Structures are given as C-alpha cells and as structure tokens.
From TrEMBL, chains A, B:
Protein name as annotated: Phospholysine phosphohistidine inorganic pyrophosphate phosphatase
Gene3D superfamilies: HAD superfamily/HAD-like (3.40.50.1000)
CDD domains: HAD_PPase (cd07509)
Cofactor dependence: Mg(2+)
Keywords of the record: Cytoplasm, Hydrolase, Magnesium, Metal-binding, Nucleus
PANTHER family associated with the record: 4-NITROPHENYLPHOSPHATASE-RELATED (PTHR19288), PHOSPHOLYSINE PHOSPHOHISTIDINE INORGANIC PYROPHOSPHATE PHOSPHATASE (PTHR19288:SF44)
Main subcellular location of this protein, as a coarse class: cytoplasm
GO biological process terms, semicolon-separated: phosphate-containing compound metabolic process
Subcellular location: Cytoplasm; Nucleus
Length: 320, 320
C-alpha cells in the first residue's frame, strides 16, 4: 500500500489541542474493514466492555460533527447506498441531547441535491443542517470581489448562481469528476497563467473517496496539478481548513473542546478536527484503509467500525 | 505572473558543477520575447560586441545538446511551425566541428513521428540523433521486469510495442494530452492503489509547453496529481534527470564539461544540464517567460533570443 504523502500533514503554527491518551482502538470485527458486520452481532455487555477506555474520552461532549460520504453513505450510481446502521444512528443522535451538524467536503452536488439523495436513502437531514464548501467559497468570493472561472461539476453549479463569473480573476476548483477533462484543466491553467496574482480556491483537498464501484480521485490531486503547473499554492475551503470546522461549530453553538468529529478521512476529518481542538473518531467505512490506524502524523482519538458503533459509544458515555 | 513553485527545484545531493560567472544576458530585442525579431536586423559587428562576455563562457565546448520543442519548433495543429532561423541554425551546427545531439522530453509522439514532422519543416535530423524518454523508459522496464499500465498518448504507443503490459505492476505516465481524461487518470490511480509497492514512472515532469495556440499542460502536473493521490513519489525518466542527460552525452562521446545545453525550459533544460556539469543557454522562444531570467533557483549561463543567436555565438567562439 502506498506510503502517506509528506505533504498531507497540517499547516504549521496551530497549537495542538489538549487531549487525553489518544488512539484508543476497538477490536476489529473482520479484516474487510469497509464492510462492517451487521449490527447486533455483539451483546450490549461485550460492546460496553470494549468501549470503556474510549468512553472516557467522550466526557463533556455536547456536539457532534458528522462527515457524510463514507460515514452516512457511499456515493455511486443510482444515488449510492446507505452504510449499514447509519440511518438509525443519525436518528438516534438527533433524538439525544447532543447537537448534530453535518460537515462535508462534497463539492460535486449542491446541498439541495445531496440532502435529497440522503433523504431518499432514509436519513433525517435538512439543507440547513449541512456545512459544505461551495456556500463557504461563495462568501469568500463576494467578500474579496473575486470573479471565478469555475472548474466544477454541473451538479454544484447552482450554488454559484449569484456569483459574477465574467472576466475571471481567479479559479475555483471542486470535485468535477468527469469534467476534469484535459481541455477543462488546460482552460483553468491558462486563466491562472494570465493573472498577475493568480488565485486558486479549492473546495477541499481530499485525495480520493470511495464510490460503490471503487476508489475515485477527489479534487485534491487536480488542485496539486494546477499548483505545480502555475507555481502557486491553492487556498483550501473545506476540511481540513480550521475556518471551515469553526463555522460548522458556530452553527450549533458548541465550542471545539465540547465537540467530536466523526469521519472516514484520517487527515481531512480526524487530523483537521484535532487541530481545531476537537476530538475525532475515525470510522472503518468509506475510504478507511487499515494503514490509517498507523498513520505517521495523525492518530484518531478512537477507531470504530462504523457510525452506529460511534453513536453507541456517545450515547452511553456523554451524559455520565 | 505566478511565483515559481518550491518543488520545481533540484534533487539535493548533487554537487554544483564548477563554472564561470553565470547569467550573462544579451540585450533583449523586444518585449515580445517569444517572438524574436527576424534574423539579420543587427549587423555582424554589433552582434559580436554584445556577445563578447558570453563568448568566453563557451571556450572548450565540443558538443551541443538541443532541446526540440520551443527551440527548433512550436508544436501545434498541422505539425507546428519552425521557429525563425532554427532550420538554418541546425544545418550550420551540423556542418561545424561540434557534435550535436537532440535531447527532448517529447512523449506524445514516437521518435519516428517526431523526426518525420521536423524533416517536413526542413530540419536535418534523423531518428538515431534523438534522445527521448520513451526508449529510455522501455530499457528501465525491461531491466526491472516491470509491466506497465500505460497512461500515454496514442502517438507514442508504438515505442512500447515490445513491452509486456499484462497484469501491470507499475504505471508509466507520459504527456497524454487529451487522453488525460478523468477516467484514464482514475484507472491509473486504481492500479497504483492496488499495488503493494506502487511504482510510477513519469516521462519528464515539465509543467507546460507552448503550442501555436497557447500554453498547454505537460505531464508534470498529472504526475503530481497521482503522486498526491497515492502518497508516492514518481521516478522521472527524461530531463532534468542526470541519467538522461548523461545518456545523450554518451551518444556523442562528449564529457559534460565540454558540452552546452540549449533549451527553453529554465528548470528542466538549463537547471538540469547545469546539475550535470554542463553549461546551458536559455532561448527566449517556446515557453520562455521574461521572469525566467530572474528565477530564484536557476541562472542560465546565458540568455539568447533564439537558437540562431546561440549558434552564432557558438560558431564564433568555440574554435578560438
């Protein structure tokens, strides 16, 4: 398996948040980590025993940030598939006293389309509960008077309806999927090379994500391609940017030290949240790979088989 | 204009070659650097005066390595166009006592196709005079028992005719042009992610090149994309790899300190050749940009308007 890329670490200068012993790991149910065993295969008592050390880490948690792709569902043809137990887990979380916010780097679909898809899979979720990079980018574009050339998927174009794209003075790149053609990449490159001060805004910098059909290149590799071609550095809007996590926390009125992030991306979700002072659990679903548990730079506060197990833990321990 | 990318520097550990005062710059004829004034606009005497300091740097030169794209011609629709004066310049060089070798990172065409195109433009060049990355890569593949998944342009596929591509255990990436589709990039990514020890071989790592229609993304940005996606580092075959320059020098039996490289790429041609102990001139044609003359890491031994001027210099000074 490929070794982690040295540049996937963190921006220097942010203090490490205070935390308890990190890296509590629950026993894995099976080697096929991305395919969790059905819920209910372990007794409640056995589960409780295994979780004891991790449970202590969850003291004082008031809010939960949930990644979507790879935690709630795997995207793919026909709308993707819900990850076993996740529909119920979200419902249980939302019935609890915990504040819940969905924090995604999804940039191929508008929030409306994403939420519609998730609701069809049975999730209790609404557009107003989602923090996503496209709206955050639009705010930045407006604040700075930037007129983007958009290298994006048609599915997310509606988020930019109110943005002036004439005579572009920057490039916005998102997970464009099939629209990452040579011609489209070259057009974005040429716009950047014509600018005196080229600005490249990237909606996330994920390396890849998991679709039902397999691993798929995310926006990050294409961001790196344009960075190298133009000799510039992109501004990332989305996880693991601290501003992005903070805006999600603000939306539910929870402080970083009172929050836990649950995601499948060891760097973007777990590392990013920890750098903001949050606790973070990695699920063994979605793009999780066994080597993530030995990542040289990031150690999750805990590793759980799936969202259902994370919610079991939270609901057992947060009110104690 | 974009600032140079920090990663476009050199591999550490190679000793800097001994050299004379570097960076002699001839006066620019016009601001439109990539469009040199027609030859013959300056008297022979004026030219001689301007070249005096640079001429000294050429003492002892016995061999010349010539980049092709951006020095001999600009590629593009209909076979591209010869750069003014370059056809005659190559002919004059080949009539002199100097040894000449063409050293290209062209990886979109086979040598046969490239040479055919250049001959149609009037150049005196044969396949056996060209050092190109595809044949060098084939040698490496055979030596190491590697079976590549090929992410290449159809035009260069014939160079790999003798290579076993079944059950791939590495990826070879070249300047694939329009074949850099999302689907093709994703297939290469998936092959690499399935390998225990992923090997990515890149035919050059150029950022971009100039076609008659404008600047075009080269293989380098796509190499960087796969490096980032998989957390690996590519092996580069072609300029600026020292092995590649050395093989070109060996072909003409010239030592590095007796040779000069003439190219339009400040990093790949000029910097790479200098790291091998050669002298190097940058032409103000092809992908040359004015900021190249103030590159923070690489300083050419001299900057000339075009190949014709470089050959004027060489023929005036090398036999003195």
């Amino acid at each position: 398996m490929p070794r982690p890329h040295p540049s996937s670490g963190f921006a220097p200068g942010l203090p490490a948040p205070p935390r308890l012993a990190r890296g509590t790991t629950l026993p894995r149910r099976s080697c096929a980590a991305a395919v969790p065993a059905p819920l209910g295969t372990r007794s409640r008592e056995a589960l409780s025993d295994a979780m004891a050390p991790l449970g202590e880490l969850l003291a004082g948690v008031r809010g939960v940030l949930l990644d979507i792709s790879g935690v709630l569902y795997d995207s793919g043809a026909g709308g993707g598939t819900a990850i076993a137990g996740s529909v119920e887990a979200v419902a249980r979380l939302k019935r609890s006293r915990l504040k819940v916010r969905f924090c995604t780097n999804e940039s191929q679909k508008s929030r409306a389309e994403l939420v519609g898809q998730l609701r069809r899979l049975g999730f209790d979720i609404s557009e107003g509960e989602v923090t996503a990079p496209a709206p955050a980018a639009c705010q930045i574009l407006k604040e700075r008077g930037l007129r983007p050339h958009l290298l994006i998927h048609d599915g997310v174009r509606s988020e930019f309806d109110q943005i002036d794209t004439s005579n572009p003075n920057c490039v916005v790149i998102a997970d464009a999927g099939e629209s990452f053609s040579y011609q489209n990449m070259n057009s974005a490159f040429q716009v950047l090379m014509e600018l005196e001060n080229p600005v490249l805004i990237s909606l996330g910098k994920g390396r890849y994500y998991k679709e039902t059909s397999g691993l798929m290149l995310d926006v990050g590799p294409y961001m790196k391609a344009l960075e190298y071609a133009c000799g510039i550095q992109a501004e990332v809007v989305g996880k693991p940017s601290p501003e992005f996590f903070k805006s999600a926390l603000q939306a539910i009125g929870v402080e970083a030290h009172q929050a836990v992030m649950i995601g499948d991306d060891i760097v973007g979700d777990v590392g990013g949240a920890q750098r903001c002072g949050m606790r973070a659990l990695q699920v063994r679903t979605g793009k999780f790979r066994p080597s993530d548990e030995h990542h040289p730079e990031v150690k999750a506060d805990g590793y759980v088989d799936n969202l259902a197990e994370a919610v079991d833990l939270l609901l057992q321990h947060v009110d104690k």
